[in-house]
Write a structure and sequence with these properties.
Layout: E1 4-8, H1 16-29, E2 34-39, H2 40-53, H3 59-72, E3 75-77, H4 94-102, E4 107-109, E5 126-128, H5 130-140, H6 142-159, H7 165-171, H8 175-189, H9 197-200
Parallel strand pairs: 1-2, 1-4, 2-3, 4-5
């Protein structure tokens, strides 16, 4: 079965916590679950916001961020047709829709509320916030979430820092996934299974599988 194509909007590319979880989930899945795709337009916008949040940062910091994202994506779209119908109201989101259509995305991950106002039947892809997409992954592949958690714990241990995984996710606007991570951590510490964690935590209905 081919991995699903996931198109990433700019607003999920520049927040460090969200970006890290997206790329780590892809890495530890071996690329078999989904492919991460974005466009040059989205990355330019993400770089703009990243620079705006760090006005005094060295140029190398911004360049490394840009290069890391491009390297971590499965596909980076330089060109696509904009001659498509867009059912949303915000014209600034037209290029996101066009790019998602061009790469035949099954999922669009965006924290732009404008897409949630569009009738889902008018879109050929499923729209998720970063939070709901992470929850969807946790429902379908809890063992993958465990592997990423283990890698994060090892990373922070090597750095001599306290891992604040759930706190960072809440600060990044992912409260549902933060709750899931807390429960995963508790069960992993006790050597218990995490297979049903996401399904037991109260959350918006997510009926479709990542497949």
């Amino acid at each position: 079965m081919m991995p699903s194509v996931v198109f990433l909007d700019a607003n999920v590319l520049y927040p460090r916590t969200i970006c890290s979880w997206l790329f780590l989930l892809k890495k530890y899945s071996g690329g078999t679950l989904f492919r991460l795709v974005s466009s040059q337009d989205s990355l330019i916008e993400a770089t703009y916001h990243f620079r705006k949040s760090r006005p005094a940062a060295d140029g190398d910091v911004i360049s490394r961020k840009y290069a890391l994202i491009v390297e971590s994506l499965d596909d980076f779209m330089l060109s696509f047709s904009g001659d498509v119908e867009y059912p949303g109201k915000d014209v600034d989101d037209h290029h996101i829709h066009a790019a998602a259509l061009s790469c035949q995305a099954k999922y669009l991950v965006t924290d732009d509320g404008g897409f949630s106002e569009i009738d889902p039947d008018l879109l050929p892809y499923e729209v998720h916030t970063s939070d709901s997409f992470f929850v969807l992954i946790a429902e379908n592949s809890p063992s993958l979430v465990d592997r990423v958690i283990a890698s994060q714990l090892a990373y922070f241990q090597d750095k001599g820092k306290e891992p604040r995984l759930a706190e960072s996710l809440r600060a990044a606007g992912c409260p549902q996934f933060a709750c899931i991570i807390e429960t995963h951590l508790e069960r992993m510490a006790k050597g218990k299974s995490t297979h049903d964690v996401a399904s037991r935590i109260e959350q918006p209905e997510l009926s479709r599988r990542v497949s």
